[in-house]
Amino acid sequence: MPEDYHAFQQAALDDPGKRWILKPKNAARGKGIQLVGDPADVPLESSWMVQEYLENPHTMHGRKYVLRLYVLVSSVSPFRVYLYQQGFAKLASAPYNEENANNPYSYLTNPDVNALNLDAEVPVEFVDFERYREWLREQGHDDKALFAKIEDLVALTCVAALEPMRERSRVVGADTRGCYELMGIDCLVDEKLKPWVLECNLSPSLEVCAGPESGGGIEEGIKGSLVADMVEIVGLNSKRVALETGSVDERLVRESQDEIARSGGFKNLVPGADPAAYLPFMALPRLSDWVVAQALSDHALQQPRLERWVAEDTLSEDQVYLYDTRLGHLSGLNETASLIWLMATDGAGPDDIAATLYESASRSMPAAPDAWAIRNDVWNTLGDWVNNRFLIQSGASANQPAAPATSPSPEPSPFSAVLDCGRFRVRLFTDSAPLIGRIEALLEPMAVAGVAGTELLPRLEIVRDTPGFTLILEGRVLRSRLPLSGVASALMACLATHAAEAQEIAIDAGLIAGPTLAGQAFLVGNSEPAVHDALALALSACLKADHSRGALLPSGTDDQISALGMPLQVSEGLSESFFGDQGISGPLSPTPGRGCLVPASSAVTGRRYTVSAVLIPSMARLREEDGLRAIPVNETLRQLISGCCSAGGQPLDTHGFTRLAEWLETCDRYLVDMNNIEVAAAALDKRCSTAPPQKSGSL
Q1: Is residue 154 one of the residues assigned to a domain?
Q2: pLDDT at residue 398 above 50?
Q3: Residue 549 belongs to what H/E stretch?
Q4: Which residues contact 259 (CB under 8 A, 6 or more apart)?
Q5: Is 561 exposed, middle or buried (0-12, 13-18, 19+ CB in 10 A)?
Q6: Is the pTM for the entire model greater than 0.85?
């Protein structure tokens, strides 16, 4: 996050059944890791990342496990990577099954998390690789094949981070041969025994986590040997003096050979047994990588070849100009760089180019030029162009593992609609498919078709931004940095604040109306965050009536309100327990993926009603047997006033406040027992049936 936020939302939309896991970046000990409930709720901040949740893990004794691998990068140039041959399978403390996947003790293997599982007989258990591999063989699996895949995966993972490490070393001026990093890489094995890298942890904990009876003694011995072997490899306590005799390339080769010879329990992966294996996966090997690989390989290596990627070139007066097709930038190369570019794009290898430059320099210089410096400059220049994506290794795509065949996501058609909300008519535009999927049904009750002159209407846009979404009305930013889950609420707030004209009052409250109520309506308060519109939805279900949110009280003496048709909202924590207890399901229950919003009934939107009663929810149990308690105007005002506004979303002035209070005097006003809704609904229905029919009509 946040650069990939919209790509993530699209992926979640394309595969609704896929689960995701949310992790804080640069955290440790399993803190903050959680399964994603609603993808729209994923935070936008750069301190978070989202990963696909890997289903169907391989289990050990019925429990999920992750392999902790210890990986040492002892040098960046030349690149040297080691994998410690011992490590641990870290087991979750609760049995794994899909129905119990939300239990952190079932899907997390971090020892700090599982140590809190007081119900587990062995909350933290480490199984060393020796016992793990023996167990695999007992189960009929090929442990050698699995660990060969793991070694390849680790090497490729480190190669993927090579260029950022080189750039960081360059920025801080560090000697790339004198820096090292020990990493703890967590690897999950799926049910088909395919390994997956989950995360790479810098400076992993080397303390003993497991108890003596669950692998703690073995853990202590392995970690002690690990540290000793690492110290020996990087030469922290060594008194050996580096041999400075011989050429630069000879010293590089000798240094690598000496280090590999003292690697102890570490296995060298890069350059490894086949030094040429990972060169094609590097953006471009640097000269030190190439020299070491050539010396350690048992056969001659072919120099890498390069081809254009996102750059076009033109030659003018012996000078090459490069055009960046992504950014539209044009830059000129000097004479030497121009020659390097022309030879490289004509198929010459880096050392062939360096040999040409050396020969040219030898003819023009009184002393022999520095051959190593020329070679190094050529390799680095080409490497910089590769990092800028001007060039790419020829055939690099052929060395990449084939991606699974997937159907490309269709480009979303821009969504537009004309919406009516009280006196506010507006054109809405967006092109985000995940957003359209969430708001289209919510907006349908307010949408109008066949309207002439739409090009003259105000333009309301919801645009994808980094991060999140931005809400823009007539070129003016109203809200920014909106997560997907917050867009609908922000949009409704915009519509509601523009619904009223001068001397009118927009009221944010639930509304229950329809034929079963004999032309009457109930206005239902929703200012309590823990409840929102739950009471309106529950009463609507009990009375078999229509429901809506938002009402417009006109100016003057007209006491009939108009329904705005906005979706109703229910608190997520309340929706599961409350609606289940009330037996409410189907279209009235909050729909996953809409942020607990329920569309209004289309038959209500824009119609005018006489409000027979204003209802305020009470979470406290009432003494009244019918679940209703009459309340004064002042108490009703206190519950409604925060959701009322005048033209332009302004708070009510003196005239507006007086108008609202006088209107409330004409209505019955009740607290409704949220613990006794069916009884309260029956009492309200009885009062409606004995009241004279009321007129209703369109706005």
Answers
A1: yes
A2: no
A3: strand 546-553
A4: 74, 75, 80, 233
A5: buried
A6: no
pLDDT digits (tens, 9 = 90+) for 1-35: 888 999 999 999 999 999 999 998 877 666 788 88
| Residue 461 structural domain | 415-494
Length of the chain: 699
Clarify whether residues 192 and 245 are in a common domain: yes
CA distance 609 to 550: 12
Amino acid occupying residue 115 = A
Beta strand spans in 277-423 (E): 306-308, 311-316, 319-324, 329-332, 391-393, 415-421
Strands 266-270 and 80-84: antiparallel
Q: How many CB atoms lie within 10 A of CB 280?
A: 17
For residue 641, the Cα-to-chain-centroid distance in whole angstroms is: 38
Question: pLDDT tens digits for 195-204?
Answer: 999 999 888 8
Asked if residue 11 belongs to a domain, the reply is no
Tally of domains in the chain: 4
Residue 251, by phi and psi: left (phi above 0), alpha (psi -120 to 50) or beta? alpha
DSSP, residue by residue, 337-380 = HHHHHHHHHTT--HHHHHHHHHHHHHHH-SS---HHHHHHHHHH
Tokens (6 digits) for 417: 């609609």
Judge contact between 255 and 175, C-beta under 8 A: no
The residue type found at 29 is R
The DSSP secondary structure of 138-161, one letter per residue, reads: HTT--HHHHHHHHHHHHHHHHHHT
